[in-house]
Design brief:
Oligomer: single chain
Helix content: 40-55%
Structural class: alpha/beta
Distance between the termini: 61 Å
Number of helices: 20
Radius of gyration: 25 Å
Number of strands: 12
Shape: globular
Strand content: 5-15%
Length: about 600
């Protein structure tokens, strides 16, 4: 059945969408839960069990495979609770009370067949039996999807004995999802993990039946076509089909930012559109052979997949353009939903900070212990907490959860680079080097900049629900994308859906740039900063990197110039300013290319 909505709510942080399905699935909206923090999931399972008087038995760390079991139990609870709410909406419709039903219908896009049919059905009076029958046949619940960051796959130990690979964090999270009763998808992000991908083939739920239907599906988050083809083929060789390729802007997004080599979103989407059939055929042939090799069921018809996109979309016009021009199946709306308490779980103080945030408050930071650029908010309380420890000459976190204890520079077990232990050892090693005061301080700042995000990104949920934060502390990390600068009010679920579908305008500023131009400027800034850092001592490898990056940027700018000159019916009021911006960026890029050429000739 076609999905009711043309948008989805991506995973945000660790805790901000941890129970979003419970809030929005009853309205047919898809959303994604992070599986990083099983400790947080267990706390919320206890809270919800007590709230709805459901028997609860704690899954402690003494229980074998506790991480996977916590995840399974939480996801099963979410499934039960969302199904109960959805069923309640359908079963308790009366002539006097059908508020949830009208909310479901009113939030649908205006061109929705479901909405049109409902209006026609109720235009001649209220027939309770007809409406109940129609609701049962036509309304669907939103998906409870899950996210696994594939590289956050820490080895685990029992005392000093290293456990086998299936007990690694990402492996255990996958097993927890696979053993749950959810009929939904796992979103695999942060790059390829061959061991994890191979492990997926151990679970029958990921394999299709004769009709091509599987209970568990795979969504790949990618930033370019080549990555989708490589990963899709790899999974197909295991007999696994990717049901959706979720394309995300490399830099114009929330959370971790995986900068591409200058590949801009528009050209990437165009390549997917052009090669969609080619991608399907290339992977289908590999899959069919492998299913035959494994003696598994081969679907009677070729399998299909969806292509979706997310990253910086902010207006109904952009939303509609992405869907129509690139033939997308859905568009992800992330950061604005952080200001929607009916959808996400954000504590009061953090919501206030987000609402007040302007462009200068949102920045691409180096605070992530994963060593990946991370979109953050200046003045977040986790960074304030971090600075207090630095001022006390005790930098670093106590590292209570250790989910990203992946650095093996000092210990085989791994330490988190944001931890007090790691920073102490790193500074001690630094003290032995004969550095100038200026260079020494620069290195110190690099070390102590890392923040305990695996705790901070989940704490907001604890504060929101008034749960114990004795271990975690009250510092909150928050990871909005640059798009947050243009929203400054707390919104209802009706507000944000009306905004997405063009029935209202929730933007607080009129000077918001087009999403493609915003991404281009972010990439230009990223390139300039990186170039300025390294151009004094440019290696051949770095030279080649910048040549490729700049070439791809030029291709992207030329693509946009052609697109905006030819496109009709969209962006008419800003087309001239967009073309001027593109010309300016092109000139700036030419200056950098000339500088790079001069450096290489000199070398």
């Amino acid at each position: 059945m076609k999905k009711p909505h043309s948008f989805h709510i991506p995973v945000m942080g660790i805790g901000f969408t941890i129970d979003t399905p419970f809030k929005v699935a009853q309205y047919g909206m898809d959303s994604v839960i992070s599986l990083v923090d099983d400790i947080l999931l267990e706390k919320l399972r206890k809270m919800y069990s007590e709230k709805f008087e459901i028997p609860y038995k704690e899954i402690t760390e003494k229980i074998d495979d506790f991480r996977a079991k916590r995840i399974t139990s939480y996801l099963n609870l979410m499934d039960d609770l969302t199904e109960k709410k959805f069923k309640s909406m359908k079963d308790y419709i009366s002539s006097k009370n059908y508020n949830d039903l009208t909310a479901y219908i009113s939030m649908l896009p205006d061109n929705s067949k479901i909405k049109t049919d409902f209006i026609a059905l109720t235009s001649n009076g209220f027939s309770l039996n007809k409406i109940k029958s129609w609701v049962s046949k036509n309304l669907v619940k939103g998906a409870i999807d899950v996210n696994i960051m594939t590289k956050v796959d820490k080895d685990n130990y029992k005392k000093d004995e290293k456990l086998s690979v299936e007990y690694n964090d990402a492996h255990a999270a996958l097993r927890g999802f696979a053993k749950s009763k959810l009929n939904s998808a796992v979103v695999l992000s942060a790059g390829m993990n061959p061991r994890l991908y191979s492990y997926m083939s151990q679970f029958d739920d990921f394999f299709p039946d004769e009709k091509g239907v599987s209970n568990k599906r795979i969504i790949l988050k990618v930033s370019d076509y080549r990555s989708a083809l490589i990963q899709g083929r790899f999974l197909a060789k295991k007999g696994l089909w990717v049901s959706e390729y979720r394309i995300e802007s490399g830099l114009n997004c929330g959370g971790h930012a995986f900068a591409t080599d200058g590949f801009l979103l528009g050209p990437v989407l165009a390549e997917f559109k052009e090669k969609r059939n080619e991608l399907q055929e290339a992977i289908q042939s590999v899959l069919s052979k492998e299913l035959l090799n494994q003696n598994r069921t081969i679907p009677k018809l070729p399998l299909s997949f969806e292509i979706t996109a997310q990253g910086g979309v902010g207006t109904q016009e952009e939303h509609r353009f992405l869907l129509k021009h690139y033939n997308l199946d859905s568009v992800g709306w992330g950061s604005p939903f952080l200001l929607v308490p009916e959808a996400t779980t954000v504590d009061y103080k953090t919501i206030r900070k987000l609402a007040k945030a302007g462009e200068k408050d949102l920045y691409l930071s180096d605070i992530s212990p994963l060593g990946i650029p991370f979109n953050s908010l200046k003045g977040n309380t986790k960074d304030v907490e971090k600075q207090v420890l630095i001022d006390k000459d005790r930098p670093g976190s106590s590292c209570p959860k250790k989910f990203v204890a992946l650095n093996k520079e000092f210990k085989d077990k791994g330490i988190c680079t944001a931890s007090r232990e790691y920073q102490y050892l790193k500074i001690k090693a630094l003290d032995e080097k004969d550095l100038t005061p200026e260079l020494y301080q620069k290195e110190i700042d690099k070390i102590t900049e890392k923040s305990c995000t695996c705790v901070g990104l989940g704490t907001s949920a604890l504060l929101k629900y008034d749960l114990d934060t004795k271990v975690e502390g009250e510092g909150v990390s928050v990871c909005p994308g640059p798009n947050m600068a243009y929203y400054s009010r707390v919104m209802s679920l009706q507000n944000i859906t009306d905004h997405i579908y063009g029935r209202d305008n929730m933007l607080s500023r009129k000077d918001r740039p087009n999403m493609f131009i915003k991404e281009l400027h972010i990439y230009m800034d990223y390139l300039k900063n990186k170039f300025d850092e390294t151009k004094r001592s440019l290696s051949r490898k770095e030279e080649k990197y910048f040549e490729t990056f700049m070439s791809n940027m030029n291709i992207g700018i030329a693509y946009y110039q052609n697109l905006f000159k030819k496109v009709e019916g969209s962006f008419e009021d800003i087309k001239t300013s967009i073309l001027n911006e593109l010309e300016t960026c092109k000139s700036s890029l030419e200056v950098m290319q000339a500088e790079l050429y001069a450096l290489t000739v000199k070398a």
